[in-house]
Specification:
The protein is mainly beta. The chain is built from seven helices and 35 strands. It has four domains: 12-19 and 201-366, 3-Layer(aba) Sandwich (Rossmann fold); 31-189, Beta Complex (Endonuclease - Pi-scei, Chain A, domain 1); 379-482, Elongation Factor Tu (Ef-tu), domain 3 (Beta Barrel); 490-577, Elongation Factor Tu (Ef-tu), domain 3, CATH 2.40.30.10.
């Protein structure tokens, strides 16, 4: 399913959040096949660092920008091989490494979650390397003299586990989400649920994304059609489905694909600020709940998002019995939440495109489009911003910067004037100041459509006459745009009614949340803005906080409060602006 036709502006934002299946890596001693021949991971890293530059995600991992490696990939659905470019990802890893050896003399050493394609009779399915046993049949590749590729099968002869502390590497292939690794070409994979539904890799617009996690907020638009076959009804993103007819367009939605990695929680909260509903993704081959799952569910609750659909993904990686056990764990976890005890749970396989029609049906039935008030003054939360000019563009042909986000009330027309707050930030001495920005709406776009007028709901890109240096690389994220003179005030200090959780969210161990103290630093998420703050005043259930970066906030807005634990910001409570 690719290149969906989007017939109109999206009218609702549905966020996706959940555990990211990162850490599917191999040792640098392994061989990776490229179109130029086999290359050791160590040598690949040397080339990558020589010709590219390392971009850290956090202190433990990062990717190499400016260097790609052309590798053969296999698409399980089309049964075809491709040559495509992979991005080198590096991670510091301490833990078990699983080693499997096959009957043709090949072996692969990888982290526990690394998927291996196996065969049971005529059925191909993915298994984590930690679940592969002796005598399992695994898929490997044959390389002919003329360079063509084909699949073959062999038995696993030996498995073992070693303890490892060092660097592991991965290749991320956005186009097909498969790559070949290991001396016998064992196949690994990665995929996303949204790409399976829409054919769109949501992170392809991000300047920062370079592996199987979303570093910046991504997006994709999708229509939902209702089709009939007699009395049967099916919901699908296209007006055609085998055996069904009479397509009726129900609505168009925008997916807000939020970063799932634990070090990117602030970005996830920024995306959640514009969500009308959410899809919480939980892997069928992982214990429930993982700390990150708890943190995402809590973040959605903080922001008052009550309508969600839970996706149990990767059912192709587990047995029927394991899937049922995992399903029951999900039910037990949801029962502990404030809003989600009765949320629908849809088992799917994104890579195999299994049960996607049931997921679309659940989205249609359980995440309604909220009522909008188009008569209110326009207001938009900015969650992305871009410079769309190519390097070397003549100054006379430069186009203004683009801001992207969701119009949360009112409507915007081409030619409208917008005020942007806090706007331009600058520093004098130790203080940060702001200056409002004013701009004209030059054009309005969704992912597929150019509009003359955009209403609240869905994700919108607005081309402005702003200097593109202001909007480049998400420089305007956290701003609020709208009709001049109608926006909430810019605040350098926040007075909050505070509710602290009993336990810190997002940690493996159970840590009690201690009361706030004067002078302590906190991370605050207000709307789509993230700012650090210092507690300057305290009461029993309130706090005054001085923020290091001014934020726009209205009375009653929710604020996510995080405290630093072991070098990472973790949610400890929620505030309400007063």
């Amino acid at each position: 399913m690719v290149k969906l036709k989007i017939p109109k502006q999206p009218e609702i934002n549905i966020g996706t959040a959940g555990h990211v299946d990162h850490g599917k890596c191999i040792l640098p001693s392994e061989v990776i096949y490229s179109r130029h021949g086999a290359i050791k991971g160590h040598d690949l890293l040397s080339k990558a660092f020589k010709h590219g530059h390392f971009i850290p995600i956090n202190e433990y991992e990062g990717y190499i920008e400016g260097f790609r490696v052309s590798v053969p990939t296999f698409n399980l659905l089309t049964k075809r091989f491709y040559i495509t470019n992979g991005i080198v990802y590096v991670q510091r890893y301490r833990g078990p490494i699983y080693v499997i050896s096959d009957e043709v003399g090949g072996s692969l050493s990888a982290t526990p979650n690394h998927p291996i394609l196996t065969r049971d009779g005529k059925r191909l399915s993915w298994k984590k390397i930690s679940q592969v046993n002796c005598n399992d049949e695994i898929v490997f590749t044959l390389f002919s003299i003329n360079g063509s590729l084909s699949l073959d099968y062999c038995k696993v002869m030996d498995t073992k586990t070693i303890t490892y502390d060092g660097i592991v590497i991965d290749l991320f292939i956005p186009e097909t989400h498969n790559f070949l690794a290991g001396p016998t070409g064992i196949i690994s994979h990665n995929t996303t649920m949204i790409q399976a539904l829409t054919g769109i890799w949501t992170s392809s617009h991000s300047e920062e994304l370079r592996r199987g996690i979303t570093i910046k907020i991504g997006y994709a638009d999708m229509p939902i059609y209702k089709l009939k076959r007699g009395s049967d009804v099916i919901y699908w993103p296209e007006p055609e489905y085998p055996g069904y007819s009479e397509p009726e367009l129900m609505r168009v939605i925008s997916f807000v694909d939020c970063p799932g990695h634990e070090s990117l929680m602030a970005n996830m909260l920024s995306g959640a600020a514009v969500m009308d509903g959410a899809i919480l993704v939980i892997a069928a081959n992982e214990p429930v709940p993982r700390p990150q799952t708890k943190e995402h569910a809590m973040a959605l609750e903080i922001l008052g998002i009550k309508d969600i659909v839970v996706v149990q993904n990767k059912i192709d990686l587990v047995s029927k019995e394991e899937a049922i056990k995992n399903y029951e764990q999900i039910k037990e976890f949801l029962a502990t939440t404030k809003y989600y005890a009765d949320a629908p749970i849809i088992p799917i396989s994104a890579i195999q495109k299994v049960n996607l029609e049931y997921l679309v049906e659940a989205i249609q039935k359980y995440i309604p489009t909220p009522k909008r008030d188009f008569s209110k003054p326009a207001r938009m939360l900015v969650i992305r911003s871009f410079n769309i000019n190519l390097p070397g563009t003549h100054y006379k042909k430069l186009r203004g910067g683009v801001i992207g986000g969701s119009i949360i009330q009112g409507k915007v027309k081409v030619g409208d004037e917008l005020e942007i707050l806090p706007g331009y930030l600058y520093r004098k001495g130790d203080k940060v100041y702001h200056e409002p920005l004013y701009t004209e709406v030059l054009s309005l776009s969704t992912q597929k459509l150019r509009l003359e007028e955009a209403y609240s709901g869905g994700l919108i890109g607005i081309q402005t006459d702003l200097d593109p240096s202001l909007t480049r690389a998400d420089g305007m994220v956290g701003n609020v745009a709208g009709k001049p003179g109608t926006l909430p005030e810019v605040r350098y200090d926040l007075s909050l009614d505070v509710t602290l959780f009993t336990y810190v969210v997002g940690t493996d161990e159970q840590i009690e949340v201690k009361p706030l103290t004067k002078g302590e630093p906190l991370r605050l998420n207000v709307g789509s803005a993230t700012s650090l703050g210092i507690v300057v005043g305290l009461g029993k259930d309130w706090a005054d906080i001085k923020v290091t970066r001014p934020v726009v906030a209205d009375d009653g807005w929710k604020v996510a409060i995080a405290r630093r634990f072991n070098g990472k910001w973790r949610l400890i409570g929620v505030g309400e602006v007063k």
